[in-house]
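Board notes, transcribed. Complex of a protein with iron/sulfur cluster.
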Amino acid sequence: MTQQNKPPTEDLLPGKIYMGDGITVSYDAPRCTHVANCVRGLPAVFRPKERPWIQLSNEASAERVTEIVRTCPTGALHYALYGGPPEAPAVPTTLTPIKDGPLTLKGDLVIQTPQGEVREVRAALCRCGASSRKPFCDGTHARIGWKSEQPGGQASANQRGDGHREAGQQADAAQRE
Ligand code: SF4
Ligand code: FES
């Protein structure tokens, strides 16, 4: 194996790495909102009830895997082809609000996060205000039943669980006393 054909795992975003023949796929679980495009698109490879849940050996075509990974709207899935080109950003950049869910973006994205600047080609950004991984959506909108058409469009304090955090802080304080 030549240097340029080494698995380019260092180019991938944080997440669990799955190695295949000529392709590496990464999965950043907190950014998955379980819309299941991957499972519908390539059920032999994306098998959520099994471990490992991504089984690249079940698909001979790395090209087919890249097609399905690119349908992941949240950026939870990425790929790198050994010696192949990286995923090209969509042109023009598009932003699509998902009903009762995040804003999804495709394009040449530069996203400011608490951990620094992130270059992305696909992302789902939280608009309910309750994600624990802002600016990314982490699926909390579904758990709290957030509705995008509700007045103000932001999760209430109860939906965000602010009250629970306050209760937790009070409990912590009580234990310290
Ligand atoms: S968000 Fe991406 S990884 Fe998660 S189920 Fe959907 S397509 Fe698959
Ligand atoms: S929109 Fe998904 S967690 Fe806020």
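The chain has two domains: 3-81, 94-149. The longest helix spans residues 162-176.
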